[in-house]
Design goal:
By secondary structure, the chain is α/β, with parallel strands linked by helices. The chain folds into two domains: 109 residues, no CATH class; 226 residues, Alpha-Beta Complex (Spore Coat Polysaccharide Biosynthesis Protein SpsA, Chain A). It has twelve helices and ten strands. The strands form two sheets. It has a seven-stranded mixed beta sheet, with helices on both faces. β2, α3 and β3 form a beta-alpha-beta unit. α1 packs across α10 and α9 crosses α12. The termini are far apart.
Length: 367
């Protein structure tokens, strides 16, 4: 009986998360952004990204926006990144937008936070829009979608950074599903007035905000966190907006190897210790309730005493989970992930547990 009571309590916690929190994004209706359009500085930091820049830069050049500049930071590259940046700058020297190049030598390269800081300091616009060199905007209205229709209170805009789709790849679907669930969380938290993260692949904020808190100084020793730790520090219940339309989406190339993806996630998880206490409690409680949900359900099935009650509680949680996830997937153009969603969820839960325990036993030192 104690096992069943514990399981029902875990189900109740899960229902609360889905009904009171995640439903905020799944039922959210985004109002199309309107004029006026603010001036925007797009900042790209590139380290050995020559081939990716060949895809990205032409797409930035054809954006439908009246007032933007592109700032390209070559962060100590050893390939043809600088040559491609210089060529792009020369090609569009007479364009309506301006292009600036910042070249950091290999000797002076100090990581992405330092490179981003230099790019931001050289910007002439109040709004900064970030993406990565291996990303592409989904549409030529990306800038407008991310930065139009903002009121005076808005200081941060969180967008969705998707991954490209590879047919027939379980790993690709797993990566994209984890990205979908993460977005469901950070969008929902932002709508609930508890914004805690964004992704550097698609993030906008005011330059004055960055300067007010002295940039990344409070977490400069952390290798990651140029996106989520900055948002966690600056965002509050009234200054953050989300953008989740197809036009405001960026797309990146997903890892093709499981080991590469695990290394990336090990790096990302190191920033969680620096979140605000309330956020850490909520994220921890949700993860533990997810893990306990499946473990306790299997224990009850093997015990076999309260099968009807166990299956009923499991079904109730699953139906609400499916309702939220399927709605979020439709919003974010990830509908193909829903059918095998439970399998992906279980895989991700135990992958996260593995990463947490591995980082605890052997903290990563090199990335």
């Amino acid at each position: 009986m104690l096992l069943l009571i514990t399981f029902c309590l875990i189900v109740l916690i899960q229902l609360c998360f889905h009904l009171l929190l995640f439903r905020k994004f799944s039922t959210h209706r985004e109002i199309p952004p309107k004029e006026p359009r603010v001036g925007v500085s797009i900042i790209i930091c590139a380290k050995n990204e020559g081939q990716n820049l060949k895809k990205l830069l032409p797409l930035l050049a054809c954006q439908e926006h009246d007032n933007y500049e592109i700032i390209l930071v070559n962060d100590g590259s050893e390939d043809d990144t600088l040559q491609i940046i210089r060529s792009f700058e020369k090609q569009y020297s007479a364009a309506a937008f301006t292009v600036k190049t910042i070249n950091i030598s290999q000797e002076d390269s100090k990581g992405k936070k330092s490179a981003l800081t230099q790019g931001i300091n050289h910007s002439n616009k109040e709004w900064i829009l970030l993406t990565d060199a291996d990303c592409v905007p989904k549409s030529n209205k990306w800038i407008a979608s991310m930065t139009s229709g903002l009121d005076d209170k808005t200081e941060i805009v969180i967008g969705y950074g998707a991954y490209d789709k590879i047919q027939g790849s379980f790993l690709n679907k797993l990566i994209r599903f984890e990205t979908l669930l993460t977005a469901l969380q950070y969008f929902s938290y932002a709508l609930a007035g508890i914004p805690y993260m964004g992704v550097g692949r698609n993030l906008a904020y005011k330059k004055s905000n960055f300067q007010h808190i002295d940039g990344f100084s409070s977490h400069l020793s952390v290798k990651s966190g140029d996106d989520d730790l900055f948002v966690s520090e600056v965002a509050n219940d009234s200054n953050t907006e989300i953008r989740s339309t197809l036009e405001s989406t960026t797309v990146s190339v997903a890892h093709s190897s499981f080991s590469g993806w695990i290394r990336q996630k090990r790096r990302h998880i190191t920033t969680a210790d620096h979140y605000k206490k309330k956020t850490k409690i909520l994220l921890g409680l949700f993860f533990l309730s997810q893990l306990s949900f499946y473990v306790l359900f299997l224990a009850l099935i093997f015990e076999g005493t309260y099968l009807l009650a166990s299956i009923s509680a499991f079904t109730l949680r699953f139906l609400l989970w499916y309702w939220n996830v399927s709605k979020a997937a439709r919003k974010l153009n990830e509908k193909d992930l829903v059918l095998f969603g439970p399998l992906f969820e279980i895989s991700i839960i135990f992958m996260q547990l593995y990463i947490y325990l591995r980082n605890l036993a052997s903290p990563p030192k090199h990335w």
